[in-house]
Amino acid sequence: MPRSVDDILKHADELAARFENYEPEPDQEMDGGAVAALRGAVQERAEAERHILDAIRQAREAGMSWSVIGAFVGTSGEAARQRYGGKVA
């Protein structure tokens, strides 16, 4: 639904006022250190998953079976194939 320029400017002014008048409540604020640690851990996990996928791709190209790969990643061969098969093919 198209909006007029006046509607858009009015909405922008409302958002600016909400931002300028915002008073955080201490019980709703997040600890910056905890947030940074969590973001870092999630990023490390994503990098580790990429490394695992690269290693599994290399293992499959070398002829390694899914049962052996499953043993390395701590699961059954079938579970490893289901989880990684479509991502490394």
Question: Summarize this, please?
Answer:
By secondary structure, the chain is an all-alpha fold.
Strand tally is 0
Relative strand content = under 5%
Please provide the ordered H/E string of secondary-structure elements: HHHH
Biggest sheet descriptor: none
- Parts with pLDDT < 50 across at least 5 consecutive residues: none
N/C terminus separation: 43 Å
- Overall mean confidence score, pLDDT: 91
How would you classify the quaternary structure? single chain
Structural class: mainly alpha
**Globular, elongated, flat, extended or rod-shaped: what is the shape?**
elongated
Q: Over all CA atoms, what is the radius of gyration?
A: 24 Å
How many helices? The count is 4
Helix proportion of residues, in percent?
over 70%
Description:
- This protein has 89 residues and is mainly α.
- The chain has helices spanning 5-20, 32-61, 66-73, 77-88.
- The longest helix is centred in the middle third of the chain and has 30 residues, at 32-61.
List descriptors:
single chain; 89 residues; 4 helices
Furnish the topology, listing elements before pairings:
Layout: H1 5-20, H2 32-61, H3 66-73, H4 77-88
Helix pairs in contact: 3-4
